[in-house]
Design brief:
heterodimer, A: alpha/beta, Rossmann fold, FAD/NAD(P)-binding domain, 4 domains, 34 strands, B: Rossmann fold, 5 helices, 40% helix, globular, binds flavin-adenine dinucleotide
Chain lengths: 651, 153
């Protein structure tokens, strides 16, 4: 190997470095390194003149490698590598010596700081002496997208991507798309009907030539990486052929099994064979195999007998499908915090104590009571209704520590809807604070208080129980007057905390993406990368990432779609070439590296380890594990690290 | 944690106090970012530890630790992401398992076990980084030069 010709460029960073580190001495001393043929210092190396002087020096001195002693590589490694490319040498032969964040800014003694800066710079010089000029690895891109979760987030993201001309596979766990928005009656802040704005979008999904809809399906396994994922999807049998089904409802009429209807949150019942609701997409029936008497003509078989279209098939089998996609959007939504966790509020066992979604179903024209607000126990019009906010939210000691963000708004909406249905009724709201940030939101709450005469009481409800005369007694405190409050209500509605759905937990596990302390999907950066997961190529949208309302959900979904489109608009993706490399002569085929690799990027071929460069992320866990030093990460080799240790120890 | 002012109090009585030399292997994603944060926050700590940035703590071969001691390091630190938070999912688990054995080996051959340390410092823990280094330097000052594994030249 011919000797390297390295140039060293020491930045003053104004006074940021130069005040503590003797930059002149640093630049001078570097010339006694064997490979250094040029060295200079400059006030702002990253400025235009600074960068140009590097280019000039590379050309004038035929440099083949560069060390810049400056700030953290997180800031300007890319700047100086691009600059090296501009001068005609590989960016991968440029290394940064971090003498600002890790030296000048944390030490006061000039002598000590200068000594340390010298060691850091020397170690970078020794390292770069062995750097190879590498070319980024070009990875082909699969221009298809998977969206997991068919709530409003998934629907919006799927439509945006599909309308841009890319093929989308939309995977929904339930028998219909729509998510929780389908269960809402009217939506704040405009009180427009939820189904009226959602149904057209659902129909658009079902008719879109670029969208392949897979309902009653779950993602089971994912391999590959950004640009090229391979996803295993299990489609459960519905036992009804949607193509043949005429939606005549004859099967439902004869089915003898009655179970609670989950779409109405148990407020109504359904049969084992059922359609989730009238406008379900896909428009077809599903035979709930857990409820059915046994898919067996001998035991029952009534639905199959009555179906004139011959759409029912008891022999339908689960289907496993593999899909190749370049990017994935996770939009698996939320669940409400379980009432069973709330002992103080009757643990879900007190009659006429409902959760917010159940109240939505009571108000909905398609719901249990056809849009009449009637309390479940005796179907009477409730005259006094208590709404309780922050149930399970903002309670780090017992429940969820976070604010669920949307409950102030939907409680105000509930109070208004109630007053619109029962004008002579009385609505009380217990609250801690009112959080109504958002366009038109504060005005909405004010109208609830003023126009609809809802009584807002600031304080928590300590307890509630059923009285003998069929009321629900609510015991609380009004912290503004300091008085205890006791209300005998006909009905109570709890604004339960929003938590990540069970399906979110499952999806995160399969996709190996992180979740935050509350179980919501973790974004790559809380401010600057709010729709990216930490794993490249996997994006987040909707309430699975954190509590949010529909406008915010839709914005995030479109943002995720936009990120995906930007990613997949490239013909190839470039993958960092600093990947593992096997020295075959040293490899004994012991497979330690195969086991250690977090990406399954190494396998054995003819008794030797082989690295799949596309899958390798360059972490080097293989290198740290290999007893024979037969595997190394390019440009961070063991030889290089030993050279760096020597440089630091003055060898 | 003992009182850091101890060292300053004893400093004048020890005329030529040993200045320990420490090599700190720190992962790019957590600990190195954490030490950048210490810098941005201008948290001061002694200059005795020189960092070597590695991609992942899982990359640190036991040979690096031995090599640093062999070349005269008084202390060696390996620091990565918190267990469970590894940027590469599980590299730091491998590091933990392997380096625990290295620690046992060093003890076995008679090196003070305090000279080799592991820590988990996240990108948000600039203060912790400064503390870990300060403590390490203080303790290595107390221990004096490392001769056990240093090559005799
Ligand atoms: C009582 C109440 C009232 C509300 N009122 C309003 C309002 O008036 N205005 C407003 O703006 N917002 C309102 N909201 C908020 C609104 O419901 C949410 O913002 C919205 O539903 C979030 O949509 P999403 O698609 O993220 O999640 P979801 O609606 O939860 O949809 C998630 C979908 O993903 C599916 N899924 C889950 N896991 C998987 C998996 N592993 N694989 C495949 N599919 C999966 C689910 O089955 C579901 O279809 C209200 C919420 C509540 C609780």
């Amino acid at each position: 190997m011919t000797k390297k010709r390295t140039g060293v460029f020491v930045c003053h960073c104004g006074n940021n470095i130069a005040a503590t580190v003797d930059v002149k001495r640093l630049a001078e001393e570097m010339t006694d390194e064997e490979t250094v043929v040029y060295s200079q210092d400059y006030v702002y190396m990253c400025s235009d003149p600074g960068q140009n002087s590097v280019i000039q020096a590379i050309k004038d001195n035929q440099l083949d490698s560069v060390v810049v002693s400056c700030c953290s590589p997180n800031l300007h490694e890319k700047t100086f590598r691009d600059n090296a490319e501009r001068a005609g040498i590989s960016g991968f032969t440029c290394e940064i010596a971090n003498i600002r964040e890790q030296c000048a800014w944390v030490h006061k003694n000039r002598e000590e700081a200068t000594e340390k800066a010298i060691k850091i710079s020397r170690s970078a010089i020794r390292r770069v002496a062995h750097n190879k000029a590498l070319d980024p690895i070009a990875v082909p891109v699969t221009r298809r997208v998977m969206v997991i979760g068919g709530g409003i987030a998934g629907i919006q993201a799927a439509l945006d991507v599909a309308n841009a001309g890319l093929e989308v596979i939309l995977v929904e766990k339930l028998a219909t798309i729509g998510g929780h928005m389908l269960q809402l009656s009217e939506t704040f802040p405009t009180l427009d009907c939820s189904q009226c704005i959602l149904s057209p979008k659902m129909v658009e999904v079902s008719r879109h030539p670029n969208i392949k809809l897979m309902t009653y399906s779950e993602v089971q396994d994912v391999s590959g990486s950004v640009g090229n994922f391979r996803v295993k999807v299990l489609q459960k049998p519905t036992y009804v052929d949607p193509e043949a089904c005429k939606l005549c409802d004859d099967c439902v009429q004869v089915c003898p099994v009655v179970v609670p209807n989950e779409h109405d949150l148990g407020l109504t019942a359904r049969r084992a064979i059922h359609i989730p609701f009238a406008q379900a997409i896909p428009a077809s029936y599903t035979l709930d195999v857990d409820a059915c008497l046994g898919l067996n003509p001998i035991r029952c078989g009534k639905c199959k007998d009555v179906c004139e279209a011959g759409a029912i098939n008891y022999d339908m089998q689960p289907r496993t499908v593999f899909e190749e996609v370049g990017a994935i959007i996770v939009a698996t939504g939320f669940d409400l915090y379980g009432q069973e966790n709330l002992g103080e509020y009757g643990a879900g066992k007190v009659e006429d104590v409902l959760d917010g979604l159940q109240f939505e179903r009571l108000c909905s024209a398609s719901g249990a009571t056809k849009g009449h607000v009637l309390r479940p126990s005796d179907h009477k019009v409730p005259k006094e209704v208590v709404f309780i906010q922050c149930v399970g939210s903002r309670d780090p000691a017992q429940h969820c520590a976070y604010c669920s963000k949307i409950c102030c708004m939907y409680t105000a909406k509930h109070a208004r809807l109630y007053k619109h249905h029962v004008p002579d009724g009385r609505a009380y709201v217990f609250y801690i604070d009112i959080r109504s940030g958002g366009k038109g939101y504060e005005e909405f709450v004010q109208r609830t208080m003023e126009d609809d005469e809802t009584i807002y009481l600031r304080g928590r409800v300590s307890k509630l129980h059923r009285t003998r005369d069929g009321k629900v007694r609510v015991l609380g405190t009004d912290t503004l007057t300091g008085q205890n409050v006791e209300i005998d209500a006909d009905m109570v509605v709890l604004a339960l905390a929003m938590q990540p759905s069970k399906g979110t937990e499952q999806a995160a596990k399969v996709l190996k993406i992180g979740r935050d302390k509350d179980g919501f999907l973790a974004e790559a950066h809380p401010k600057l990368k709010p729709v990216e997961s930490v794993t490249a190529g996997i994006y987040l949208a909707g309430a699975a990432q954190g509590p949010k309302d529909i406008p915010e959900t839709v914005s995030q979904a479109s943002a995720a779609a936009c990120k995906v489109l930007a990613l997949l608009s490239q013909d190839t993706l470039s993958h960092a070439p600093t990947v593992a490399k096997v020295r075959e002569s040293h490899c004994t085929g012991c497979e330690m590296c195969v086991d250690a690799c977090p990406y399954q990027a190494i396998r054995l071929l003819n008794g030797k380890a082989v690295v799949n460069e596309v899958l390798c992320e360059g972490c080097g866990t293989c290198a740290g594990t290999c007893v024979r030093a037969a595997i190394d990460v390019k440009n961070v080799t063991q030889l290089q690290i030993h050279a760096m240790i020597s440089a630091i120890m003055g060898g | 944690m003992s009182n850091p002012s101890q060292t300053t109090a004893t400093a004048p009585t020890a005329p030529q106090e040993h200045e320990p030399r420490i090599v700190a292997f720190q992962c790019k994603w957590c600990t190195s970012a954490g030490s950048d944060l210490a810098g941005v926050s201008r948290i001061q700590y002694p200059a005795n530890a020189v960092p070597i940035q590695v991609m992942c703590s899982g990359m640190v071969s036991p040979m690096y630790v031995l090599s640093a001691f062999n070349k005269g390091a008084d202390g060696v630190l390996v620091s990565g992401c918190h267990p469970g938070d590894c940027h590469y999912m599980k590299g730091n688990f491998f590091a933990r398992r392997k380096l625990y054995l290295v620690q046992k080996l060093l003890q076995f051959i008679g090196l003070e076990s305090d000279r080799f340390r592991m820590s988990w410092i996240s990108a948000a823990e600039g203060t912790k980084y400064a503390q870990v280094i300060s403590d390490f330097v203080r303790d290595m000052k107390a221990l004096g030069p490392q001769r056990k594994l240093k090559a005799k030249r």
